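Protein modeling request. Please complete all fields; requests missing the sequence field cannot be processed.
Requester role: graduate student
Desired output: 3D structure, token encoding
Chains: 1
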Amino acid sequence: ALEINIDSATTSNIASTAFASPLGASQPSQTLMDLAMTGPSGLVSLGAAIAIVNYTPRTTAAITSGGSLTSSGPVNVTTTTNHNVGTTADASSATAVNADASAIATSNLVVTDEAYVGANGVNVNVATPELNVRTVTDGGADQTTTEARSGSGGLNNVNTLVINGGQMGAYALSTELRRSDAYLADGSTLTLPNGNTNVHLDVQSDYVQDTTAEPDGVASIAGTLGTGRSYAGTLGAHTNRAVVGLNDLGLPGNSGVTVVGAGNLEVTASANSLNRTTAYSGALAGVAADTESAATVAATNSTLAMIGTGSNLNLGGAALVE
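Delivered output (322 residues):
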């Protein structure tokens, strides 16, 4: 073959939107109670508009068999992804007198993107001048947007159930676990019979996690009682790794990798990440207003390029790890 390409690609465009009825919410939601979601004021059980997304994509490109591949040009093992997920709960349409116009939006993503060569106990034979193993975010940054917009509510009392029940007017929570890997499998042997094959492991990631909770127009307006209580929370763990020696659980192994016949070895990883969390309070009322807001972020973003423990690398050139 002149060139061998082993490619896996996923493009996701997911939108979940919920709008409230004019009457708003009249009683707690069984769905929310089953999920047992918690905000600063306690359990969240009321929602005039409720939007929930659970998404667990896995994209894999790999060479795992003990056979042989021969190419006069490069062999490329590439995973390419672009995930765009939007979750919106909009209760601004709940405009009846005494309407309870609370909005609940949650997104839960577990994303695995991986490209690799080898398997524990397997000898993979690849005759090529160049072996590239890459995991790449393509087409701009991955975007996860979670937005809850509570309504301005009724002409008299607004969101009384929200206040009396200790609930949030707008509640937005985004949880995201993401793993992007390019690696040689722990316990494997990579034989490169050409004798001077350049090997490149590379991860390039770009993602945005954006969470917003706000009253409609950033202010709820009511004649007597208004609620602008908002909570926005972001939980994120993003890992980007180019590694010689990951096991099938995605953890650094102890057996190491044996590479025979390589020229240069490059192990590179880079990532751009943005976690943005916003909560607006705001209630205007003739008698009483309740306008607390809270925004919390618990996020880790790690980028790693590494040659693992116990590896035996027979290189005719240089090793670059960055």
